[in-house]
Amino acid sequence: MKKMKMTFEIVISSILLFLVPLFSVAQTSSEVMQSGSFVINMGIQPQTIGNGLKPYGLIYSLITNFKIPVKWIIAPGKAKDGIDIIYNGTELRGGPFIIEAQYRSQALNDTINKWLAKGVVGFTTTSPITVPVAMTLQFATVPRWTLDLQNGIIAIPYFKNAGIPNSA
Q: Domain locations in the chain?
């Protein structure tokens, strides 16, 4: 059997293809994220397991364990690899995610810190920011994946590297 090599970009695209139909998709809307919101930076280069896959495990954990919404930020009409938002001089690309300040608690912050130690890159905002919200990921629509016997084995290491449990 031929071994297939998949880049992070292809794997992430595959994971997101499963996610997109499950969430209500509306046109991008501008929303203000208050100071104290947590931003997951998805545009770090080079991509690694820690900064490219672990963020999806963090998001899965926050949605399933804390039942909080996560905002997915994508600038409408941006070019490939374009900028989604700029915050305090930092250009954020790759569809960053935001956990709103109102949902932050000590338990949630402890969870975020555990994922930061695994390589997730993010920061807490110190001032409000208006962002283009493409989608709000919520507990009611958290996905459950089914992998086929022939090719599903290819995706399993990526889910494991992301920290998404087998129960998903």
A: 8-162
Query: Which residues, 6+ apart, have CB-to-CB distance to 147 below 8 Å?
Result: 153, 155, 156
Q: pLDDT-based confidence at 16, cuts 50/70/90?
A: low
Residue 40 has pLDDT above 80, yes or no: yes
The percent of residues above 90 in pLDDT, for the chain, comes to: 62
Q: 20, 56, 48, 67: which is closest to 159 by C-alpha? A: 56
Question: What is the band of 99 on the pLDDT scale with cuts at 50, 70, 90?
Answer: very high
- Tell me the Ramachandran region of residue 163: left when phi exceeds 0, alpha when psi lies from -120 to 50, beta otherwise: left
Residue 66 burial by CB count (10 A; 0-12/13-18/19+): exposed, middle or buried?
A: middle
Amino acid in position 126: T
Question: Of 143, 145, 141, 140, whose CA–CA distance to 166 is shortest?
Answer: 145
